Amino acid sequence: MLTSSTSKGPVATARGSVTIELLFLQPTLSFDYTHTNPHLKPHLQTRRNGNYDDRRMNRFDVLIVGAGPAGSFAAEALARGGVNVALFDGRPPGEPKACGGGVTSKALKAWPHLLDAVGRTIDELDMYSPSGKHLHLKLDEPFAVYSRIAFDTFLRERARKAGATILAEKVSARGCKRTEADANVSSAYPVDEGWIVTTQSGAEFFTSWLVGADGANSAIAKKLAGPLPPADMEVAFGYRAPLPDGGNAATVVAFLPGWVGYAWAFPRLDHVSFGIATTQDAFDHESLDKLLWDFMVSYYEAARSSEQSAGQDAGGPHAQPLQRDCRAGDPGSMRALQPVRALEPMEIWKVQQSAEGDQIRNELKKSAEAYAARIPGLAPRTWDTRRACGEGWALLGDAAGFADPVTGEGIYYALRSAELFADAYLTGTPLDYEQRWREDFGRELQRASQMRRRFYGNFWGAPFTDRMIEFARGHRGIRQVLGQLVAGDQGYTDLKRKLARSALKPL
Predict the structure, then answer these.
(1) Can you tell me the distance from the alpha carbon of 361 to that of 143, in angstroms, rounded to the nearest whole number?
(2) SS3 per-residue string spanning 422-469
(3) Contact, 147 vs 101, CB < 8 A?
(4) 9 vs 4, 20, 80, 302, 470, CA distance in Å?
(5) How sure is the predictor about 319, in pLDDT bands with cuts at 50, 70 and 90?
């Protein structure tokens, strides 16, 4: 497998054939030695019957736009099944994805090889209610936190090694044009039914199946399934900041006072990812940004207090500069990492001016790096009408709207949707993907959407999240269910029944 280091076009060997393309030369040179796999289903065979001028255009069975977790996972599965698949990666090298990077224990158990990526496992965390109540949770099953540069690189390289063609090309919706089969065209190259994809550099490709895996802002999804209204979207924004001195970086989830959503602090190998996730229709950046800065300052104050209690040097946010050269497969993979200590309780959501707080804030202003992203959070009725598949096209992950409307977590659904589509395609029934995702996790996400208003609403005169943490502090069974919910092991369809059953257990 060869991939051109230039931005003018690929130099690649495609699975099932050898194709040498020098797209920056005119005329283009092409040498095609095709040998089809007789064991593939008929729809998987790359058709080399003269329908397009191969001196000008690359042909693939499947073209995937977007090389995040969903796109790379699907490309790997399809390539392992003998499909001639290409993956467009339009993100500039080293540009981080705006994401907390959390991967649930449910995902780690489904795909254990994810543990080979560079990251950190989390087996305990601190939770805070909107009124500042604190709960320390020890999880039965750990989840993981990754740098998205390292995680995405890990999955993309697996796809490459499996035989997928990786193309460092940007693709817009305007560059994707549907073609209809027409045997009566008076040309040496009649038109096939499928898609002609033209990249921003001018390179042209043909495919029978176009797959959009280009995130929540997917231009491909808007073209194929229509745009989503603001009520179906959420917003995440935050900062990447240095680890506290001593590396005592705990994992924290704190529900917002007076807002739908929560703040988080997810420690990675070389920095802490801070952020807030909330609904787009109620988004007020100035007010929420102030809340987030107060949260960050409280985090470092607690870290300093914890270090001092342990007899070590005070821990501020200036221990190490941010690093960006993590590589999947390094010796520092999460299998070898030790868990970090818990922080002392934070004085959260309580604005208290202090010299120490001002010093921390000033240090963070110099080093913290901002990011922002949109997250799908589909309304209950949207799940009934929104399609992720049609004749010759499919959507995966965030591009399809597959994210938990309560937590915003989407990596599990990105990987699972990719797996379901690849399975459907390889069995010769790609249109069955629509039914498969609905049966597999569609009902769960719709239930989460129905629960979102109640989860962030009031219960017995106080926010439900306040009551939930208050009950969990005094009840082991409820605390266990809450830990399973955070780790991704507890779904929403039976959450009420599970909580009620747990509440009957002894305190």
Answers:
(1) 30
(2) HHHHHCCCHHHHHHHHHHHHHHHHHHHHHHHHHHCCEECCEEHHHHHH
(3) yes
(4) 7, 11, 24, 51, 58
(5) very low
- Residue 139 token pair: 């999880």
CA distance 340 to 353: 29
Distance (Å, whole) CA 183 – CA 424: 29
In 306-388, DSSP assigns E strands to 369-376
Q: Contact, 82 vs 40, CB < 8 A?
A: yes
Q: Give the helix ranges, DSSP H, for 176-284.
A: 219-225
Q: Report the greatest alpha carbon distance in the chain.
A: 84
Question: Using 50, 70 and 90 to split pLDDT, how confident is the model at 40?
Answer: very low
> At residue 237, what are phi and psi to the nearest 5 degrees?
-145, 160
Q: What is the spatial distance between Cα 441 and Cα 402, in angstroms, rounded to a whole number?
A: 9
Whole-angstrom Cα distance, residue 116 to residue 119?
Answer: 9
In a 13 Å sphere around the CA of 192, the CA atoms on its Cβ side amount to: 20
Question: Length of the chain, please?
Answer: 507
Helix (H) or strand (E) holding 102: strand 102-103
Q: Of all residues in the chain, what percent are helix, strand and coil, respectively (each to 5)?
A: 35, 20, 40
For 456-501, the pLDDT digits (tens) are: 887 777 888 888 898 888 888 888 888 888 888 877 777 777 777 7
Find out whether the peptide bond into 27 is cis, omega within 30 degrees of 0: yes
Query: What letter would DSSP give residue 1?
Result: -
- Rounded to 5°, the CA angle 440-255-319 comes to 105
Other CB atoms within a 10 A radius of the CB of residue 494 amount to 12
3 state SS of 504: coil
CA dihedral (42, 45, 50, 52) in degrees, to 10, reads: 110
Alpha-carbon Rg for the chain, nearest whole angstrom, is: 24
What single-letter DSSP state applies at residue 347?
A: -
Interval 47-72: pLDDT, tens: 443 444 444 568 999 999 999 999 99
For tokens 């064991």, name the residue: 39
pLDDT one-digit tens code per residue, 202-214: 999 999 999 999 9
SS3 70: helix
